[in-house]
Amino acid sequence: MKSRSRGRGSRCGPEGDRVVAGDVLARLDPVQQQQAPGAARTGRQTARAERSQGQADFARLDALLERRAAIRTDRDAAEDSFQAASGALARAQARMEQADKALRDTTPSAPQNATVIDRLAEEGQVVGAAQPVFDRALATGVGAIFDVPEVLLADVHGPVAVLLCTLDNPDAASSGTVSEVSPLVSPDTGTMTVKMAIDAPPDRLDPAEAVRGTISFADALVGLPWTALSAQAGQPAVWRVFDSGAVDLVQVTVDSFATERMFVSDRIRPGDRIVGRGRICCFPVETPLM
Fold first, then answer.
1. Which is more confident, 79 or 6?
2. Are 196 and 213 in contact (CB under 8 A)?
3. How many CA atoms lie within 13 A of 117 on its CB side?
4. DSSP characters for 140-161?
5. What integer is the mean pLDDT of 97-115?
6. Do 204 and 246 touch, CB atoms closer than 8 A?
7. Are 25 and 123 in contact (CB under 8 A)?
8. Non-local CB neighbours of 244 within 8 Å, separated by 6+ positions
9. What is the pLDDT of residues 37-55, one digit of tens each?
10. Which InterPro entries does the record associate with it (predicted)?
11. Cβ neighbours of residue 239 under 8 Å, at least 6 residues apart?
C-alpha cells in the first residue's frame, strides 16, 4: 500500500495487525494539508463572486443591446468575461476538492479487510507521495508457500490430501488444497513453488509463520541420497543395514531423481537404515567398513 500524500509520519500501525475496511493505518503530519483547504475555499468564494458579477454585467448589456442602447462589442466583451469567470470558478472548485482529498490522504485507511505483514516506514520518517508504506495480505483466506521437488509433482494427477500444521503446535493440523503451482523450476534448488490455501486455519496464525505440510500418495516413495545407489545383476540396488550391523544388497526400483536425491518405490520402507557412503566397501552379510 502506497502513501497518497507527502508528509512526516506521526503514527504507523505495527506489523501483524488485522484491520477491516476503513481502519486508519497511519497518520501523517497534516500541517501543510490543513492550510490548503482554507486557501482553496477563499479562492472559490472570490471566483464565485466574480462569476456572479460577470453574469449580471452580461445580462444587463444583452438587454441594452436589444433596446439598441449598447453596442455589440461591449456585449461580447461582457460575455467573454462571464465565460472566463465561469472557468475560473470551475478551477477553484477543483483545487478545493484536491486540497480536501490531500487532507484525507494524511490518514490512509485500509480499503479492504487485510493483515499488515510488513511496515515500510517508521514514525518520524518523511514519506513522499506514492512511496510504499505498508505491505498487506488481503483477508480473503490464509495460504502457505512450499518449495517442492519437481519429481514429486510429476506423477500427481488430480487433487491430493494435504495436512498442514505449525512447527510450534504440530498436533493442531489443518487441511489444505493446492491453489497454484509455478510452471518454472528454480535453477538453484531444483524445486517448484507451490501455493496452498488453508481450508480451516488455526487460531492466531501469524503471517510468515513456518508450517509443515504432509502429502499422502497412494504409492509411498522413500527418498535416499544418490550416493547410496549401487547395482546388482544390472539392476539398481542399495545396501540395507540390519540391527546386527550386517548388510545386504537389495534391488530397488528408482522412481525418480531430484537434486542429490533419488526416490525408490519398493522393498525399502521408511525407517530402514541404508548405507549412504562407503558402499564399495560393503559385502553381503558383513559389517560395512565406515
1. 79
2. yes
3. 14
4. S-EEEEEEEEHHHHHT--S--E
5. 76
6. no
7. no
8. none
9. 788 888 899 999 999 998 9
10. RND_pump_MFP (IPR006143)
11. 228, 230, 247, 248, 249, 250, 274, 275, 279, 282, 288
What mean pLDDT value characterizes the chain? 78
Contact 193, 147 (CB under 8 A): yes
Q: Is the model's pLDDT at 11 over the cut of 70? A: no
Q: Which three cell numbers stand for residue 120?
A: 515500510
Q: In angstroms, rounded to a whole number, what is the distance separating the alpha carbons of residues 29 and 222?
A: 60
- Which pLDDT belongs to residue 38? 81
Is residue 24 classed as helix, strand or coil in its secondary structure? strand
CA–CA gap between residue 77 and residue 19 (Å, rounded): 58
Q: In sequence order, what are the beta bridge partners of 177?
A: 197
Give residue-wise pLDDT tens across range 265-282.
788 888 888 888 887 787
Q: What is the pLDDT at residue 49?
A: 92
Residue 239 pLDDT > 60? yes
**Helix (H/G/I), strand (E/B), else coil: 109:** strand
Q: How confident is the model at residue 187 (pLDDT cuts 50, 70, 90)?
A: confident
CB 133: neighbour CB atoms within 10 A? 22
Read off the amino acid at residue 142. Answer: V
What is the dihedral sign for C-alpha 54, 56, 61, 62?
positive
Q: What is the pLDDT of residue 289?
A: 46
Contact predicate 288/278, CB 8 Å: yes
Q: In whole angstroms, give the CA distance from residue 117 to residue 134.
A: 8
- Cite the beta strand spans of the chain per DSSP E: 7-12, 18-19, 26-28, 114-119, 126-127, 134-138, 142-149, 161-166, 174-181, 191-198, 211-216, 222-225, 230-232, 235-241, 247-251, 254-258, 261-264, 273-274
- Residue 15: Cβ-neighbour burial (10 angstroms; 0-12, 13-18, 19+): middle
Kindly report the number of other CB atoms within 10 A of residue 210's CB atom: 8
